[in-house]
Amino acid sequence: MEQTSSGFKQEDTQPKDWAQQLHHATRATREDWLGRGISYLCIGVIILVVASMLWFITSKGIATFTQNHVNIGQFLTGTNWAPDQGKNGALPMILGSFAVTFAAAIVATPFAVGTAIFMTEISPKRGRKVLQPVIELLVGIPSVVYGFIGLAVVVPFMRHLVGGSGFGIISATFVLFVMVLPTITTMTVDSLRAVPRFYKEASLALGATRWQTVSRVILRAATPGILTAIIFGMARAFGEALAVQMVIGNAAVMPKNLISPASTLTSQLTTGIGDTIDGTLPNNALWSLALILLLMSLFFNALVRVIAKRGQLSHER
Predict the structure, then answer these.
(1) Contact by Cβ (8 Å): 112, 188
(2) Which residue from 301, 255, 237, 244 is spatially nearest to 108, judged by alpha carbons?
(3) Residue 120 contacts by C-beta under 8 Å, 6 or more apart in sequence?
(4) Nearest CA among 83, 77, 107 for reference residue 95
(5) Whole-angstrom distance between the N-terminal and C-terminal Cα of the chain?
(6) Sequence-separated (6 or more) residues with CB below 8 Å from residue 177
(7) Would you say 200 and 218 are in contact if contact means Cβ atoms under 8 Å apart?
(8) Which of 151, 105, 99, 144 is nearest to 265 (CA)?
(9) How far apart are CA 253 and CA 82, in angstroms?
(10) Which pTM was predicted?
(11) Over the stretch 65-116, which tens digit does the pLDDT of each residue have?
(12) What whole-number distance in Å separates Cα of residue 304 and Cα of residue 58?
């Protein structure tokens, strides 16, 4: 090192340059800040949109009780639905929604679990090659196509089989059964594949048969995931509108049986929302039905989280 004035200047300035370089943001740091900022912005927009939707539907839904002074108990338990005449009983639609939802889940669950067992335990290769594309195809079919098929096939079949018009809860159940089957099947397959392999190996090593291992070990270990799949399917069925509207009959009366025309919350919304004026009692009553749908969706999501958490705790034990 030269003992010159320039050399002394170099020794004095080097620490300052290093300090400046340490405090100076590099290109990678700036990219990290940019990516983090974009992520926070997207999350903020999503939270804002969800909060706005919740506030909008809630404010519209409670207007029936705050502005039109309709008793909430009479709204939920009343059996007459004619908002333009001051009759605001939503019980027929609530019962219709629950009826088609539970019926579709009851019919679809055995088929979904059986298909999932075939795809994971009996014939994984054939199931992956043959059944997986079929299930993906069913997921991609628009609901209006399901409605047309139900209108052209299911309704005439039920009319010929049990009489009447063919429209009703049972026709909607068959349509929803096909629609929720891919959802329950796919999630059940994932649950069965998530079961630790040593569960199966230990069961077979202890002398259990293949079916005993599937029914008493694998299915039992995958029960939380299967229940989650069923609830997701029920949430899909509860919120389905167009296909159900085309086959259920859209009669806002108390359902007497499975083959009489009925109505659901979604079908009543789709058929009536275009015939009302914003701010009137009929329009506010429909928004109250939408609020019930929203609350039920939140309930289904909360139920899924509770079951998933209990399943995680049981695996940890």
Answers:
(1) yes
(2) 237
(3) 127, 189, 192, 193
(4) 77
(5) 68
(6) 104, 107, 108, 111
(7) yes
(8) 99
(9) 10
(10) 0.80
(11) 998 888 889 899 888 888 888 888 899 999 999 999 999 999 999 999 999 9
(12) 23
